[in-house]
Predict the structure.
Amino acid sequence: MRKQPLVIGEYYHIYNRGTDKRNIFVDKKDMLRFWENLFDFNQTNPIGSVYELSFKKKTGEINKKEKPLVQFVAYCLNPNHFHFLITPLQEKGIEKFMQRLGNGYTKYFNNRHKRSGVLFQGKFKSKHADSNEYLLHLSAYINVNDRLGHPMSKLSKSSFMEFLDKESGKKLCNTKIILEQFENKKEYRDFVFSSLEDIELRKEMLKELELEK
């Protein structure tokens, strides 16, 4: 049982990385599968195997009225780790979503790459966004995490383009909780880059998360 309950209506930074710091995406196909799974596993009822899900997608049998387990605010996918800023919409919504995501993607990954065993480093980590200021800084940190400490990779993807309204594909996040606190998208963009100029804050966050070592 988690020391910190994940409460409906509160916002949390959820993160994890590959076991032994290994990559969780070998190529773009893996990254896009993980991205699609963020939609696929975010529903109340079990959806069956990856094969069944793929078949349902092709035949249009997926129930689009399913109530989601969580709501995304921001995300970043990197070759060997990920960050989510989410809030649960149901009791134990985050726990259920993360279990389905972890199990489902691991089965796909192991099958495709002919391996066995765990893919992620233990249970996912969580940190409560216990103030609005921290929530805003978390959104900034997550949105440009693919640019922090390492060159941006083709196997990286973040929600920053959604915030700037430049995402050409389907959108995952509800950005209103953040953007409604700014005059416009340009002001938010400026906030993101200016906030990360605080080197001490960045170092503190990196040390706390222990993902970029």
Remarks:
- The chain has eight helices and five strands.
- The chain has one domain: 12-209.
- Helices lie at 28-40, 50-59, 93-112, 132-143, 160-163, 176-179, 185-195, 199-209.
